[in-house]
Amino acid sequence: MGDQGGGVGGDGGDQGDLIHYPVLTTTNYTSWLIRVQAIMEDHGVWEVMELTGETSKQGIMAVAAKKAKGTKARAHLLQCLSDDLLMQVAMKKTSKEV
User: Fold this and answer.
1) Looking at the 3D structure of the chain, how many domains does it have?
2) Is residue 40 part of a domain?
3) How many angstroms from the chain centroid is the CA of residue 29?
């Protein structure tokens, strides 16, 4: 899929659960979003980016599961950012804020 910048992982071979994320720059937002969305959908965490806030009627287990996915999604997103952008969003608590 072309050069994806400073992704996570080693030098090839069997990477297990390591994911190679593209780095977000000032000029590649659209292609970055397409790639990151595909990766996060594959890992089952993209849905937290589209939450509507309808948690009041859901059970405790469903809310906990969504929070866990949100934490995972935030971690995935932070891997994609250049150091400059990372410093700007480091204190954001949720994946949607990032």
Assistant:
1) 1
2) yes
3) 14
Residue 94 in tokens: 């949720």
DSSP state, 58? S
Q: Is 25 left (phi over 0), alpha (psi -120 to 50) or beta?
A: beta
28: CB partners within 8 A, 6+ apart? 22
Q: Is residue 7 part of a domain?
A: no
Per-residue pLDDT tens digits for 42-93: 888 887 777 555 555 556 677 778 888 888 889 888 988 888 889 999 888 8
Q: Is residue 8 part of a domain?
A: no
The first and second tokens of residue 21, run together, are 């994320």
